[in-house]
Amino acid sequence: MDPTTARLRYHGTGGSLFGLMFVNALLTIITLTIYSAWAKTKVRVYHWSHTELDGDRFAYHGTGGELFAGFIKAGVVLIILSFAFSALNSAIIGENASVGAQIATTVGFYVVFFLLVALAINSARRYRLRRTSWRGIRFSFHGDGTAFLSLMIRGTLLTIVTLGFYAPYFANQARAFFVEHAKFGSEPFMYDGKPGPLFREYVKAVLLTLPTLGLYWAWYAAFKNRHFWNHTAMRGARFQSTITGGALLGLHVTNLLLVLFTLGLGTPWAIARMHSFWCNNLSLVGTVDWATIQQRAGEAQAVGEGLADTLDVDVDFGM
Amino acid sequence: MVTSRRWEWSGFYYDGRTAARESVTLTLEGNRLRIRRTDGTTLLWPLSLVRQTQGGYSTEQVRLEFGDEPAEALLVNDPTFAAEIREASPVARRAVRRQWKTGPIVALSVAALVLVVALYVWGAPAGAVWAADRLPKSWEVSMGEGFLEHLQRSDRVCADADSVPELRTIVTRLTDAGPGEEYRFHVIVVRDSLINAFAAPGGFVFLFSGLVNAAKTPEELAGVLAHEIQHVTLRHSTRSLLREVPLRFALFSITGGGETTANTVASLGALTFRRGDETEADREGLRLLRAAQVDPSGMISFMRTLEAEFGDAPRFVRYLSSHPRTVDRIAELERMASEARYETRPLLDGASWERLRNLCEE
Question: Closest Cα of chain A to B126: distance in Å?
Fold first, then answer.
C-alpha cells in the first residue's frame, strides 16, 4: 500500500468563538468565577469538535462538573499547604528567627509548590487525553507521577547547573515521556527524537540572540516543533510538521496586532488563527488499519487539572 | 392523501470498539433512526435515547451517540441534516439541536455586549441613585465607619472634632443650621499634607491636616465643611460607592476573589463625584453657610487658593474628570453669593483659629 497523508484541519471561526467566549465571560462574572470550569470545558469541546483529522472530528468528553471538583480539591490542598507552612513558621522558628531560617522555610514552600505543579501537569495530561476521542476511540495517558517528578527535578537542577544548556535535553526527555506514555485506544505512540539536533539548534539560537534581537527564537521554536512531531509515530504512520520560523513569527506578530488594535476583542480571532496554523502544518503520513485499533476502557480523576489551573501553569504542550 | 418526503442522509458510523470508519445511510423510521450498514444489516436507534454531543455550530459535524461508554457514534457531515431531521418529527427536534451560523452568533454577541456596556454606563448610576435613597441609615453609617477604621488602622487619624472645641464650634454652627437631624456628623482630621477633604457615607467627613493648614480663615474651613456636609446629606458619597458595586463585582470575579487587588482598584475609583454632584454641593453648601450666618466669601476665597495650588487641568483631562472647572465654580458661587446678602457672625477668634490651624503640627 502506498503511504497516504491524513491532514489536520481546523474549522473553528473567530466569530463563533467570540460568541462562546463572550457568554463564558459574562457567566463567569455573574457566578463569581464558579462557572469558569464549565467555560473552560466548553472552549475545549469547541476546539476539538472543530479539529479534523482524515475527515473526522475529534471529540472532548470532559465535563465542567469534573473540572469544578478538581478546582475544589486543588483549593483544599493549597489551603492545607499554606496553613502547614505558616504553622511551621511560627512553631519552629518563632519570633526571634534568623534570616537563614526564614529563607529556608520560604524555599521549602516553593519546592513543595514546584513538586505539586509537576504532579499537576502530569495528571492534567492524563485527564485531558482520557477525555479526548477520535473515531469513537479514546486517547489515554499512562505517565507515572513519581517518574515524571524525578524527570522534572533532575531536568530543572541540571538546567540550572549548566546555565540553561541542558534545556534542550530536558525538553526532549519531557516530550519522550509525554509521547511514549500516550495511547490511542490500544495503540501506543512512539518517540525516536534524539537530543543532538535540538541541542545544536539551541546553541545556534543562543549565539544568534543578540544579532537577531531575539527573533531567532521563533526559528528555534519552529525547529523544536518539527523535531517533536517528525519523531512521533504510531503503528508505521508518522506525523509531519511543516512549521517554519518565519511563518511562526508572522503569526505571532499579526496576532499581537490583531489583539492590540481591537482592545482585546479580537482575541477569539487570534486564537482561531493560531489553531488553524498548527493544524494546517501538521499531518499524519502512512497507512494505518484503523479497524485493528481497539478501544481501552479507563477513567481519570479531574484533580490534577484543577490544581494546575489554580497554580496557573500552562499545561498545554500542543499535542 | 398525505404525501411525506422520505428523508435520507449519509453519515459515518463508529462502533466504539475499533477506530474503523464505516459509511452508512440514515433514514427516519417513526421515532427511530435507521442506520443501514455496508453489510446490509440495519441498526435502529430510538431518538429519545440518542445523545447529541456536537453539531450546535454549522461549522461542526453533527455527532450522535448511543449506548453506554464506550458509546457507538454517528457523525454526519451533510450540512442540511440537522435542519431536515428537525423538520421531520417533533421527537427528532428534541434530539437534534438547531445549528447556529457564525453571522447570527457575532450579531447577537455584539448586541449583548452593547447592552451590557449600556447597562453599566447608564444603569449603574441610575441604580445607585435608586438604592442610595432606600438604603437604611445604619448601612450608610457602617460604610462610613469602614473608612474611619481603615484610617485608624494605618494610624493616620490626628483628631476628632468632638475632642477639639474650636473645630466643634464650626461644625455645630453648620449642623445646627442644617436641614435636620438626618445624620450625626463626625469630622475627622487626617494627618496628611495634601490639601484635600472627602465625605464618606453616613456623616463622616475627613479633613486632611494640609487643608486645615492651608485655610486662611475659619470661614474658609467652614466653606469646605459645608460643601462636604452637603455631599453626605445629598447622599452623593453613598451613590458613588454604590456605583462601584458592579465594577467591584466584576473585579472580584476576574481576580478570582483576589481581595487586595479588588480593594485597591475599587478604592481608587471610590468616592468620585459626578460633575452635577459638585455643583449641587457648592450650591447647597452656600445655602448652609447662609443659614448658619457664615460669611460666604471664605468659601470663594478658598476655591481661589485651590485654583492657585492645582491650576486648571488641561482640556482633555477636564472633560474626563468629575470636577467642573474651578474658575466656573468660583464664578457661579460669586453670582449666587451676590444674589442674597445677609448678616454674618464670626466663627472663631484669632487665637483659637491659630490653635486649630496648627492642630496636627508636631
Answer: 20
